[in-house]
Design brief:
The chain is an alpha/beta fold and 272 residues long. Helix content is 24%, strand content 36%. The protein is built from 7 helices and 12 strands. The protein has helices at residues 58-70, 81-90, 151-158, 173-181, 196-201, 232-244, 249-255; strands at residues 2-12, 15-27, 35-41, 49-51, 54-56, 72-78, 94-100, 109-125, 144-147, 167-170, 187-190, 209-227. It is globular. The model is unreliable at 1-31 and 259-272 (pLDDT under 50).
């Protein structure tokens, strides 16, 4: 509905009068439609979920709040992470979330704002008593699963020095978890706050998995980003909208998550 300020001409006898009626609800017009923007993402609960054709999740709530402030309507495209990353890295004006901000990616994107906080670690099935990890170099003897184009792959190759024949890459975290739950992988990387949906999917409990090692390099924030070289006006618009939601409950929730378990609980974690 649009409120329109009008003046009405009234004829009284031989004289004309103008009556200012101020804000007259003259036209019942629909609101202007928000401009569309392409948004690519992977399924990664609880931050990004895709059920019955509906994109949702904790980080999605933040993105939608930001886009609402910017007057933009998301057109979601859900892909395996590697494809989502390549599309966002090669196509201007396409938004992606949530992505780790690494030195390798720094110059490829304009970084809009933080959208999640993670504390990644290496985990195993509790039943795998044969897997012993006390220090980082111990993982070299085991098969570790990760997702293509994921920051964790860069870390595994460049920092952990994981042998290529002990590294198995999947298209997305859903497939990594499927193989892990079946015992096809010895170790994988995930966040204690982000595993519940996958545990449920594979009929596992928290007692069935054990975090064997946490390292400082895997504690980080993830970001909303857009390809470097995108429309400068769009980038500014997004950054201004993000600034308007920085105090929102939705954003504070994902940046200061409460641990669902206790990292030092023997049933949950072996080392920190």
């Amino acid at each position: 509905m649009v409120a329109v300020a009008v003046q009405v001409q009234i004829k009284t006898g031989s004289r004309l009068w103008w009556q200012n009626w101020g804000l007259l609800l003259l036209f019942m017009l629909p609101p202007l439609a928000a401009e569309p923007i392409r948004v690519v993402l992977e399924v990664s609960p609880p931050h990004q979920t895709f059920d019955n054709g509906q994109v949702a999740g904790l980080s999605t709530e933040v993105v939608e709040l930001m886009l609402q402030q910017a007057g933009l309507q998301p057109r979601y495209e859900v892909y395996p992470w590697a494809r989502a990353f390549r599309l966002a890295a090669s196509t201007p004006n396409v938004l992606i979330y949530n992505m780790a901000r690494t030195p390798e990616r720094e110059g490829q994107f304009d970084w809009i704002g933080k959208v999640a906080r993670y504390q990644f670690g290496l985990l195993k099935l509790t039943s795998r008593n044969d897997i012993k990890v006390q220090q980082l170099s111990d993982i070299h003897g085991y098969v570790v699963g990760a997702q293509r184009e994921d920051f964790a792959v860069e870390w595994l190759k460049n920092v952990a020095k994981q042998p290529a024949n002990r590294l198995q890459l999947q298209p997305d975290v859903v497939e990594t978890w499927r193989l892990f739950a079946k015992g096809k992988l010895d170790l994988m990387i995930d966040d204690p706050n982000a595993i519940q949906a996958m545990l449920d999917k594979h009929q596992l409990t928290r007692a069935d998995v054990q975090f064997v090692l946490f390292v400082p390099e895997l504690e980080l924030y993830s970001w909303i980003a857009i390809k470097k070289g995108s429309d400068p006006a769009l980038v500014l618009r997004l950054r201004q909208a993000y600034a308007q939601i920085e105090g929102s409950p939705q954003l504070q929730k994902v940046l200061r998550p409460e641990l669902t378990g206790t990292l030092t609980d023997p049933a949950f974690a072996q080392a920190h």
